[in-house]
TrEMBL record:
Protein name per its UniProtKB record: DUF4270 family protein
Keywords assigned: Signal
InterPro entries: DUF4270
Superkingdom, taxonomy of origin: Bacteria
Pfam families (UniProt xref): DUF4270 (PF14092)
Signal peptide extent: 1-30
Amino acid sequence: MNWPISACRLSSVSLLSAVLLFTAAGCEDANDLGVELPGTAAANTDYRDFPVTASTVLRDSFETQKATRILVGRVRDNVLGTTTATAFLNLKIAQAVVAADTLPSAVTKLTGVDPNPQLDSLVVEAAFDAVYGSSTTPLRVNVYQLAQPLDDRETYNAASSVALGSELGLNVSTRLNATARRRERTNSSSSTDTTTIVVTVPNNTVRLKLHGGGRNLPLANDVFSLLKGTSFTQAALTAVWKGMALQPAADFNTAVVGLLPSSAARAVFYYHYTNKKNTGTLKGRYSVAFGLGSFQSRENAPRYFTQITNELPTGSPLARLAGANGATQSVAAGETDGKVYMQSGNGFGAKLEIPGLNELRQLAQPVDGGSPAIAINRAELLIPVSPFANLLFPQAPSAYLYEVNATNQSLQRTLLNNRVERLVLREGVNPTGAGLTSIVDDQYSNGYYQNAAKATLNSPLNTFYTMSITTYVQAYVYDKLGGPTPAAFVLSPYLRKFYELDLNRAVLDGNNIKLRVYYSKLR
């Protein structure tokens, strides 16, 4: 149910007036808010909109390791500047072998003569499902060997960096708007009509050729020699190819591409060999994985992460979010034309300061040590979207609310012997996390992060977000948070431990965010 963004403010209205207001606005019945009819409860019901002071912050150190996407590229916009994404990847022999793959050493067993496999090309391939920016310009990257493989004992995030080794390919390009032709049935639901037509479909596959077609890469020949031998192992592969980095070329700034770490994320060796009649050649291929899809679990998959950096516009108020102390700064909506920004992949968040929470806490103070003076019936954040302000990036479909201190650092608590960031949890869940049985997702929906309250967009209009936080406001007002009171909150599309990685953005109307609260004054 979507509450209207603009509404009359009532103060100390009667129960009957409150019911009429709900009816006119298309909202719930008064009893749904836990309010009785006049004369049956010793309470008056108030409805108030508390103003929210909004600003933009830039958070750091969020997870990109083994995320749902591998981001590569650079994109520039006039407001938040330039975002650069570099991928760092380990390579691993897949547990699930692609049907088309055959080790060059194995073709000897299939022929009656020496097959003499010869390397034709080495291509880094991956499917993609997102282009943040323009898809008409080919993606251009520099590919490097890693100086050392990514360490399985280390944790990598968006701010991490690792040493690079030798160049594997400079200014390697791939199309982002390629198409393919395939034959499809005209009527796929018919059991008798087998008529087909040829259709053109997008070919969303990145192909970076490191060897072949005029490129000569000694490393490709070294690894292929291992593939032709009888002792090809993970240790042997890692000794020669320690991993790779995909870095956008210095003058490329038109798009960031979201690669999928599926079974198609591979470095593919294409080769030919002599057929068993010694009358010609046959083609073969073998691939080494760098994604998740070729392994039985996320833990067994090769390690990878995306490094994301932001170059903020010079002269903009947002520029003070850069630098060593940038994470402690905030830029008020009044400095950015009334707008505040949040974006999933690069750390921008909307800082929300809500003085009305302390006002409600004062109103709730019990008289003479008795029960609280007010009862919170319903509370929700109403967050309007600034229209026509986000044309380059997809709209973030949801967001989450983090409790922070005065310097924008997340408050933490210990839960199940783990330190976790303090999040506003969904309705009905103890705001301290008490009663939950795990930190990450579990099949019983008892994971801490999977119980985060969610601000949802009113699709398809996409004009505002709403977040129901009644349980949280009750805990705040009655001093049941189980720790320090937050100085503010940060609204962000990014949720830790969910492995989601994208560049979805929201531009919010920072002057009109409000906390709407329905509460009863108890007699």
